[in-house]
Amino acid sequence: MATHASREAAMVQVRVAGVALDASRQHVILLKPVDEIPGAGRVLPIWIGEQEATSILIAVEAAPTPRPLAHDLMKTLLETAGAAVDRVEVTRIEEGTYYAEVTVATPQGSRSVDCRPSDAVALASRTGAPIWVADAVMDEAGVTDMLADAEETEAAEQKVDEFKRFLDDVDPDDFRS
Questions:
Q1: Is CATH 3.10.690.10 the right assignment for the domain spanning 4-145?
Q2: 3-class state of residue 74 by DSSP
Q3: What is the mean pLDDT of residues 19-31?
């Protein structure tokens, strides 16, 4: 089994950039490399279920819930057993299906468990564990950060509008010495 250090060389650490709905109203989580600024680079879209999307959003936004959700229960079970989530990894994509692992530090040593990426991300979002994506997955399924590009375009348009208003209101005498 490869060590974390050797696997990290072929992986990129990501953060949850957002949860969105695609054109067909399917939930998608967007994972973005932590070292990339908004509007630059790529994001990895992973389509997930509505319940998982809600669970991730609740964790990312630290929103209170009246009762624990399934991922809250997972976290509590691990803590009760003296274990902690060490990291989560999106390890591969096969025929459009993403695969992930949760690595748990236990009193008996480190254990990796196969899981869905949505569950891994929901659990990492609750525990503060780092999220990693295999370079091969990012290369195959990563897309240009279009959301940030749209925000940059909107910001640029606002600056142009602001400049136009300035030109409309400026008096040439304001520039004479």
A1: yes
A2: helix
A3: 91
